[in-house]
Amino acid sequence: MSDAAIPTAARSAPITMVGPIAWVRNNLFSGWFSGLVSMLLLFLIVKWALGFIEWGVINAVWSVPNNQTQACRDLKGTGACWAVITEKHRFILFGTYPYEEQWRAFISILIFIGLFIVSAMRRFWRKELGLIWIGALTAIGVLMWGGVLGLNYVPQERWGGLVITLILATFGLAFAFPLSILVALGRRSKLPAIKALCVLYVELIRGVPLISLLFMASVMFPLFLPEGMNIDKLLRAQIAIILFAGAYLAEVVRGGLQTLPRGQYEAADALGLSYWAKTGLIILPQALRLVIPPLVNTFIGFFKDTSLVLIIGIFDLLTAGKTAIIEPAWQGFGIEVYLTVGFIYFCFCFAMSRYSQNLEAELNQHRVR
Amino acid sequence: MSTSMEAVASAARADAPPAIMLDKVNKWYGALHVLRDVTLNVALGERLVVCGPSGSGKSTLIRCINRLETHQEGTIKVDGIELSDDLRALDAIRREVGMVFQSFNLFPHLTILENCTLAPIWVRHMPKAEAEALAMEYLERVKIPEQAKKYPGQLSGGQQQRVAIARALCMKPKIMLFDEPTSALDPEMIKEVLETMVGLAETGMTMVCVTHEMGFARQVADRVVFMDRGEIVEQGPPGDIFENPRTDRLKLFLSQILRGH
Lengths: 369, 261
Ligand SMILES: Nc1ncnc2c1ncn2[C@@H]1O[C@H](COP(=O)(O)OP(=O)(O)OP(=O)(O)O)[C@@H](O)[C@H]1O
Ligand SMILES: [Mg+2]
Fold this sequence. Notes:
By secondary structure, chain A is mostly helical. Helices cover 67% and strands 0% of the residues of chain A. In chain A, helix 7 packs across helix 10 (233-259), helix 8 (192-206) packs across helix 10 and helix 14 packs antiparallel against helix 15 (334-363). The two termini of chain A are 40 Å apart. Chain B has ten helices and ten strands. Chain B starts with a helix and ends with a helix. Chain B is globular. In chain B, a hairpin with a 2-residue loop joins strand 4 (73-78) and strand 5. The A-B interface holds A 261, 263-264, 266-274, 277, 281-282, 285-286, 289, 365-369 and B 66, 68, 91, 94-95, 97-99, 101, 103, 105-109, 118-119, 122-123, 151-154, 167-168, 171.
């Protein structure tokens, strides 16, 4: 038997250092200079974190009796005055909604969150989900307006806070997303009229700031309506947001449509699929999962852009927070309020971001070999 | 292979009504004249191989047959239905005509089984269970039933092309079009796909096949059509075309093909 006939013995893989200690050694302390920089940054981070804990926890005042904010003012900025949140959290969350009825707004918020969670789970992605949405939104409408089932009527002008933000964002995206798909498909239509209409819509809406659209919706739009007819201000802002988001999302969706090779369209055509079957079963499922990152990027952007409604006097979460500290006793505690409001926005946006990453990985499994 | 069998088969089909009729078909891409007065009848059950140099309009020709491309002049009739802007006629024709592409064009986000059941369910409105049974039957025919739950990206090129054939067959077409089904494949995979196509030919399917696989053409084709610059230059039984080319263009083409192999 010659040497060549003997198969080479299998060797074990070279030893590589793993684990956090190895990572730190390889990445942070690989030489004297990087070690120095790492130490310096570590020092700054620890110092800043300790300072924040001291301000936000150790020196903080958590509650004060009857709007007596002297205790907070005595801190002279060395500690946080969380008392403002303790005192004003219901105003921040529910705005000017009647105090005794605020449980209704609270349940509405819970329904919204429940709706998001259910919609996020793939096992609920069936036709029934549409019914769940209709049911949930009806329940929210009944709770917020009242006037039936023994609930007192609450006019829309008194709604405010987080509920408004969730209403604007949820309805906004729930309508803007399907609209954007239609517009994106329309831009690729062979019918010149439809194509022109879609291009016009996207270019017009994208060309103006959201603020000016909101102004138009709140100030100019009523001028065109016949005498006596009045469309709810919130609804007008909602429509402006839907139109605005729709134009942006349409371009994202169109980007996805363009990445599909022509062969996919041809194969679907050759099998005799109708336009809508082809679009719904072949084209969109592939195009949309390719654009999940930019889609979610736009979603998150619009979730936060709903705060612009403050300029037409709608009480969303941010406006409520701002208004909470107008009262003389609580003036000067903006940091605490804005941190809290920012944290609420962050929770929603971060959840969206994490979820989209999971979804992307799950839906794109077929690309992994 | 066996010329006697071939002769018997084609004789039996000679009087059948044509499955595909092209009459003086002309097509232009802008100013480029890609099909010039193409007249061609394909009988029911006939196996036609189309060959010709690159850019001669072979793909365009067969893509006109199921109207992936539209022609500007002349008439095309498939299964007795004339191709026009009438969408109902188009739907009817696409149900009867299956197509296999050079680049497979499977739907990557669907499993192999879903690829095969999609059209029966959505076009033929077949119940899901029935469509799946049918799909499994054809996947067995192309010898990959065990891959049914995988995604196209997990299969080799040859396997993907066989799935593409099964997918088209699930619509129970009367006519199958193949546009260079093996030219994107490695040599060892070409064989498995060609074997599948030979098997299909044995069932009596009407086939129009653009290919340069001369062995395949000899084995199954009733007739070979040679195209050049948008025209049909020569046609006849594979033996005649390959052994006794009459035109210089075909002679040149054959010499290039043979050198290539
Ligand atoms: N969509 C198109 N637009 C413009 N010209 C085209 C288009 N498709 C094909 N052509 C041109 O039409 C001519 C015929 O193309 P066709 O694809 O039918 O050739 P072919 O015989 O299939 O060639 P190959 O063997 O390379 O596939 C070529 O010159 C090609 O460049
Ligand atoms: Mg071609």
